[in-house]
Design a protein that fits this description.
This protein has 4 helices and 9 strands, in the order E-E-H-E-E-H-E-H-E-H-E-E-E. It has about 170 residues and is of the alpha+beta class. Strand 8 and strand 9 form a beta hairpin. The two termini are about 40 Å apart.
Length: about 170
């Protein structure tokens, strides 16, 4: 973004509140107007023909842009991922217990990463682990949906579940 003498175009389109008449001005006249008001000539859109400029306080403009960017960042949705781990031979009670926690996490809007750890030779039961993760996803259908199928990465199989959109 160019300001004052950095603007190289011979003519500029002036817009804004503090100018007598919006329109196309020679660069010298636009700079003179800005100087008269003791403000800066700021190039808003360089790609336009002629470039669009505004007469304003550049430091105040930068401050407002930073403030707006900070506000946008604060309002952005933060995705929280909660992880639930179990083994390939997790019994029914533990499975139901972890299922209850996953339902709570999904209903509060968090994503759930369900993972099964294979220790030692238990990697032989990878198909059993996959069945367990798929059952986990089916049990959670009313509060969340599976984002992907179970994936085996080294000695752990993972699957992501996202909460359903509230209507």
């Amino acid at each position: 973004m160019n300001i004052n003498e950095e603007i190289t175009a011979p003519q500029v389109r002036l817009v804004g509140d503090n100018i007598p008449e919006p329109g196309i001005y020679p660069i010298a006249k636009a700079l003179a107007l800005a100087d008269e008001l003791s403000l800066d000539l700021v190039e808003i859109s360089a790609k336009a023909d002629p470039p669009v400029c505004k007469i304003l306080d550049y430091q105040k403009f930068l401050y407002q842009q930073r403030k707006k960017a900070k506000e946008m960042k604060a309002n952005a949705a933060k995705v929280v991922i909660k992880e639930i781990r179990f083994g390939p031979n997790t019994d029914e009670h533990d499975f139901q217990f972890k299922l209850k926690h996953a339902k709570e996490f999904l209903s509060e809007g968090s994503k759930v990463k369900a993972s099964i750890f294979f220790r030692g030779r238990s990697i032989q039961f990878a198909d059993q682990g996959e069945k367990q993760l798929l059952r986990f996803a089916v049990e959670l259908e009313e509060v969340g949906r599976a984002e992907n199928m179970p994936v085996l990465e080294g000695k752990r199989m993972t699957m992501m579940l996202a909460p359903l959109k509230k209507k």
